[in-house]
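Exercise 7.
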Amino acid sequence: MRVVDQNIRPDVQIVSGRADRLLYLHRIKEGRDLYWIVNDTDQPRKATLSLLARGRPGLWDPSTGRRRQMTYWVQENCTSIPLELDAWDAAYVVLQPEESVPRTSVLKTNLNSYAVEEDASGKAVLRGNLVSSEATAYVEGMRSGKPYRVEVSNKERVDPQVLPSEGWKFGLEGKELEIRYARERLAPTGDGEPAGFARSEYNDKVWSVVPLSPERLTIRDWWVLGPFPNPDHEGYNHVYPPETGIDLGASYLESDQQEPINAT
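Solution. The predicted structure, written as C-alpha cells, is:
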C-alpha cells in the first residue's frame, strides 16, 4: 500500500488526532459521496479528517434517515471535517452539492461538539462545549486565507468533581441493548458446550473481537502488482508477465528501461 500512497492521494487523511484503527469505506450513490467512518477502539476519539471528495457534509443516521449538517472547510481542494466518535462508534458522512464554500476553518480548539456558523454578511460564530475545569476557551484556524486565534476566559470555571469509586449500582434502561462488537472463535459443532463456552466464568479474552455490522466483510488488505511502465499511454495494450501467471515472489524486468517490476 505504500506504493499506492506515494502516487495516489488517500481518500481520507487524518489531519489531527490518532490515526490507528480509524477505518473508513467510501461509496458513491446517486452522485453523492458517502463515507462510513469507524472508531475501532475502546476509547472515544476526536479527529479532523480531510476527505478527497468535495461537498457540504452531513451526519446521516441510517436507522432514522435523519441528517445533521456538519462544520467543514475546504483546504487544498479537499473537504475537511471535525469528527467525534465514542468507543466502538461509527458514523455515516454524506456529501451534498455545495452552494457556497465556508471561509472559516478550525485547525485547533479545546471545545467539544463545536460548530461554525456563517451568516449572510460573512460573520462567523463558533459554538461548542467547554470542559468546566478549563480556564480559557480558544480556537485557531484560517479566515479568508489569514490565520486567527481567539481566546475567551471561562467565567464559570469549577474544579473537577471527584466521585467515590464505591456505592454505585448500574442497570439497563429498556428491554433492548445494541451490541456492536463481540468476541468470536471458530470451533467444530458440538465442542462449545463441553468446553464451557456458555458459562459466565469462561475466559474468552483470547478470542478475536469482531464488528457485528455488514462492513466487517470489507476488504482491508490488498496485494499490489506493479508499478508497470506506461510509455505514451500504451501500457494498457501490453500484456506483462504477471498477467500471464501468478507468482507472488517473482520480479520482472521491463525490456526498455531494465527496471525491476515487483510482483508484490
